[in-house]
Amino acid sequence: MERKALFFDVDGTLFSEITRTVPESAVRAVQKARSLGHVVFINSGRVYCMLDFLNKLVETDGFLCGCGTRILVRGRTEYAYTIPHERGKEIKKSLVKYRMDG
């Protein structure tokens, strides 16, 4: 069998907003995939500080967070990108100018 990388979203996919947990069936599925040699990642637009609680609920191989701006593999940051401060200020000005929320 060929080893695969599996990516799961959080909201309504791996994590239930209703029960505020990962269903046991999902935990078992992730465990089975990993036992077969596949690697499992959580892939979310959320930033990592909004996702790290999942480490206590389900064991995965890593996270792709913040729309790809941070990649963690087995607890180690492999890639991180932040918007430069000056660019952030420009974006904020545009949001205010066009009355947008951000």
From TrEMBL:
Pfam families: Hydrolase_3
GO MF annotations in UniProt: hydrolase activity
Record keywords: Hydrolase
SUPFAM superfamilies registered for this protein in UniProt: HAD-like (SSF56784)
Gene3D superfamilies: 3.30.1240.10, HAD superfamily/HAD-like
Domain of life according to the entry: Bacteria
Protein name: HAD hydrolase family protein
Species annotation: Candidatus Lachnoclostridium stercoravium
